[in-house]
């Protein structure tokens, strides 16, 4: 069973701050879990295995929480993005609604 947030004494302080941070997360789509992936924040899919996620977790915490849901050898990347229009990625041909999701800000 993977560790939980309460397993680490640093868990309470290992967040991105009061506001959620924006991340680009990719995992091998072939390694997706059978059920929905717990994004630990508000997320929008861009393509199979590719997500924009706003999360209060630090990059390290988000990376590990996603990693624990995937098979041990699954490829995974988690990159922070500046959460303002100048920091948003440019994209074309991705899942519908991504730009509207970015403009909408945090759902929480």
From TrEMBL:
UniProt name for this protein: Uncharacterized protein
Source superkingdom: Bacteria
């Amino acid at each position: 069973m993977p560790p939980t947030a309460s397993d680490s004494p640093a868990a309470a302080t290992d967040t991105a701050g009061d506001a959620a941070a924006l991340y680009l997360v990719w995992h091998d789509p072939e390694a997706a879990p059978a059920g929905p992936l717990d994004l630990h924040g508000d997320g929008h899919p861009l393509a199979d295995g590719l997500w924009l996620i706003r999360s209060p977790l630090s990059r390290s915490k988000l990376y590990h929480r996603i990693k624990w849901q995937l098979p041990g050898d699954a490829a995974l990347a988690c990159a922070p993005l500046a959460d303002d229009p100048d920091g948003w990625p440019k994209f074309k041909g991705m899942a519908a609604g991504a730009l509207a999701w970015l403009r909408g800000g945090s759902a929480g």
